[in-house]
């Protein structure tokens, strides 16, 4: 962070003296006005619900240019990473700042692969859930519970503990997501198999049974790996900010990541892919492509409460580069599985076509986001709709950890503690119960 060659001056119309505020520049992106001393100097807070104009931290991990539709992990464009790297290389990059060379890649892959099993006791913990529990409810519980199993990696201030917990979380998330799925359908859990890739192993834990040999389909394996890469990090979004805020109290990494999972669940965030597919299925059941026009009228009617799920983004106001890559993957997977004529895909394309031409969406800069197509890919692979957000959580875990570790290592890090504009009752006395 370097001082910019200008400063901001804040003046008041009530005669209070104006103050100068320092301005800092990042390497790219907007400058920031440093308001840390504002309260001390003026007795006033800033007001920014939803953090529309607030940089909550400095970070060197992920950069998004919403107007250009650009997403960089450690400087590398997502389009290049998605084509040239696998997910574990991307994890290494996010965690350590640089892409691994061949030896580093092998060592890192071996390390993650050797930590994929979970404590056997975990499955008894899982049994406490109802079989029809939502996988995100299960995952929030299981991930939080990891801190009860791995006592040797819960001190967030110890760099070695942070390193071990990072590997454990990245390695064990696929195992836990697959266990949540198998539990729901009453099938035996499949132990990880170490000669498979990260995504190949996940596919096997999801879809194999002990009765038969399971062969990983390389097209599906690659598609899943791409889903993981595209979801690996997205700078200071709601769940990442939750992880940072939660971790800022010094809680253990497993607890902080569980908080991120809970936040991700919401339909405005990671739950959007589930909500998007539910929307497409509902529309398909109620007339399909023929009813698209009518549905879009509802979306545009503010009183209907209906949103076009998978559309719009807080940051991307041009296009979401992940959506483009996901659309390509969608084509590849549907062709591989002979589902080119999949009616939901046709429906999604019809909705997209209208939205890209309709003034309501164009004027508000609403474009398809990554979730618009990722649900269709996952459904084609055989992943149940209620597990979509779990897959997102699996992939985002590395981003959360990288951001959490960056925060803990930042000398300017403090417990997060926003302030408020109080609009409740001023001080009053408690009346006796007979007088209330
Ligand atoms: N359908 C219809 N109208 C919309 C939509 C939508 N999907 N998204 C935004 N709008 C309208 C909104 O009503 C508002 O209109 P007006 O200015 O007339 O009041 C305008 O567009 C701006 O919307 P906003 O809610 O102020 O925008 P935001 O930046 O706060 O919200 C969003 C971003 C992603 C929450 C929102 O676009 C949305 O709810 N989209 C659907 C859910 C979704 O797909 N979420 C996944 C996000 S990508 C995955 C991730 O990174 O987590």
Helix content: 40-55%
Instruction: Please indicate the count of domains.
Output: 3
CATH-level-2 architecture of the largest domain? Orthogonal Bundle
Radius of gyration: 24 Å
Hetero groups? carboxymethyl coenzyme *A
Low-confidence stretches: none
Number of helices: 18
Q: What is the name of the CATH superfamily of the largest domain? A: Citrate Synthase, domain 1
What's the overall average pLDDT, rounded? 94
Order of helices and strands: EEEHEEEHHHHHHHHHHHHHHHHH
What's the CATH topology name of the largest domain?
Citrate Synthase, domain 1
Let me know the largest β-sheet. Answer: 3 strands, antiparallel
Strand order of the largest sheet: 1-2-3
User: Could you tell me how far the N terminus lies from the C terminus, measured between alpha carbons in angstroms?
Assistant: 56 Å
* Level-1 CATH class name of the largest domain: Mainly Alpha
Based on secondary structure, the structural category is mainly alpha
What is the number of E strands? 6
User: Beta-strand percentage?
Assistant: 5-15%
Shape by Cα distribution? globular
